[in-house]
Write a structure and sequence with these properties.
By secondary structure, the chain is an all-alpha fold. Helices cover 85% and strands 2% of the residues. The chain has two domains: 141 residues, Helix Hairpins (Orthogonal Bundle), CATH 1.10.287; 215 residues, no CATH class. It has eleven helices and two strands; from the N terminus they run αααααααααββαα. Helix 1 packs antiparallel against helix 3, helix 6 packs parallel to helix 10 and helix 8 packs antiparallel against helix 10. The two termini are 83 Å apart.
Length: 370
């Protein structure tokens, strides 16, 4: 409620008060005027009767010569005239009672209307106060929401490059894991050639530990990609690109070639009675790798599980870059120096990470397991 609105409301209430006061004042004045006229009429009537009695009775012929009886009659007549005069005056006073009641009602109504006016004006002032208070609270909430959103945007601006860096750090483990697994595969082939049955399967289990680690790394990159996309949808600035694209899936899926080569070696070993005998003896041994509980289930299901993971990761990467292209045309640059500083740092970091990324992808693509 504005100051002008308050003034208008008060003026309306004052006008209503003045109107009601005018009405009851007119009623009182009418009652007083009417009763004053009646009172005056009664007084003058009483005086006239009294005067008539005074004039007539003393000169009433029978009374003047009537002796004692006439005197008493004269006294009685005089008393009657005085009584009539008294009754007239009393009647006149009673006629003034409605005037007093009207005056009393006027005083009560005046006080009541005045209190009502004061109460309504007080309520208007209270409403103005609470209206201002609500407006101030609303403005404060709006400011807090704005500050919270600004902080959230700054947080997102720092989160995006951090997710990219984490994805690069995880990705750098992939060629290392594959290299270690390849070394073990060479050792496995050597163990087969030397007919070392148990060491052969021990080394196979260790290789699947590397494969499980590779799977977990791809899963971590996928989770990063999902988090990155959600952050981009909330971010109102110019977001950097996610460090991996769906074009990288072939390189990230290099593990498939390794598993193909590994499975060939395993199939050759299983065709040999002695290797197969040892395998059957330990195939159900506990082996917790990427959700698999034993070596047998890992050998039969790991390749499909990795294929599903790379397919899911590829879909996430396509979604990220598709949504980022759309958002690039709808970017809202926030006028926030801190946020702009974060954005500059994010793009600078991204440019540095692109070099790491390219080196990683080339390294994966160049790996061979034969």
């Amino acid at each position: 409620m504005t100051e002008d609105e308050v003034k208008v409301q008060k003026a309306i209430r004052q006008a209503e008060y003045d109107s009601e006061l005018k009405i009851i004042t007119e009623r009182l004045n009418n009652a007083i005027s009417k009763e004053k006229k009646q009172y005056a009429s009664n007084i003058w009537g009483s005086i006239a009767i009294f005067a008539l009695g005074v004039i007539i009775f003393p000169f009433y012929e029978p009374a003047r010569g009537g002796g004692e009886i006439a005197i008493w009659l004269l006294r009685i007549a005089g008393g009657g005239i005085i009584g009539i005069f008294g009754i007239a005056i009393l009647f006149s006073k009673r006629q003034m009672e409605p005037v007093k009641e009207a005056q009393k009602s006027y005083d009560i109504n005046t006080r009541s209307i005045k209190r009502k006016l004061e109460k309504e004006i007080e309520n208007i002032d209270k409403e103005k106060y609470y209206s201002d208070l609500r407006a101030a609270d609303k403005a404060l909430d709006k400011q807090k929401a704005k500050e919270k959103e600004a902080q959230h945007q700054v947080s997102l601006a720092s989160l995006l490059p951090r997710l990219n860096q984490e994805a690069i750090n995880m990705g750098e483990k992939l060629p290392i894991t594959l290299t270690d697994a390849s070394i073990y595969l060479c050792e496995v082939k050597e163990l087969y050639n030397r007919s070392l049955f148990s060491p052969f399967w021990d080394k196979i289990e260790e290789i699947y530990s590397f494969i499980g680690s590779y799977y977990d790394t791809l899963s971590g990159i996928k989770d990063n990609a999902i988090t990155f996309q959600k952050a981009c949808l909330e971010y109102k600035g110019a977001a950097p690109q996610f460090i991996y694209t769906d074009d990288d899936i072939i390189a990230l899926s290099k593990i498939d070639e390794f598993i193909t080569e590994l499975n060939k070696t395993i199939e050759i070993a299983q065709a040999d009675f002695n290797f197969a005998l040892i395998y059957e003896a330990r195939r159900t041994n506990q082996l917790l790798i990427a959700g698999f509980t034993n070596l047998s289930s890992a050998i039969s299901g790991m390749k499909n599980q990795l294929s599903n993971m790379t397919s899911t990761l590829g879909a996430e990467l396509r979604n990220i870059h598709s949504s980022q292209k759309q958002m690039h045309n709808e970017v809202i640059t926030l006028q926030n120096d801190k946020l702009m500083s974060y954005e500059r740092n994010a793009f600078e970091m991204n440019n540095l990470m692109i070099g790491q990324h390219n080196q990683l992808i080339l390294q994966l693509r160049g790996m061979s397991f034969k």
